[in-house]
Fold this sequence. Notes:
36% helix; alpha+beta; two-stranded antiparallel ribbon
Amino acid sequence: MSQLILASLDKNRLKVFEKLKAFNNIGVLGGGTALSLQIGQRVSYDFDIFSYSRLPRNLWNSYK
């Protein structure tokens, strides 16, 4: 994997991104933010997570 360009994330999104690392075994980051972290040519405002399977109902509460 190439080096991520974290400068494409502002301070708040960087905090969210750090928390999302806990989900790396559940799915993958895709969409504009994934592209932005790879090429650094744009700012993205959301995180698109694609999961391999159905997520457990209690997942959100365990990571608040």
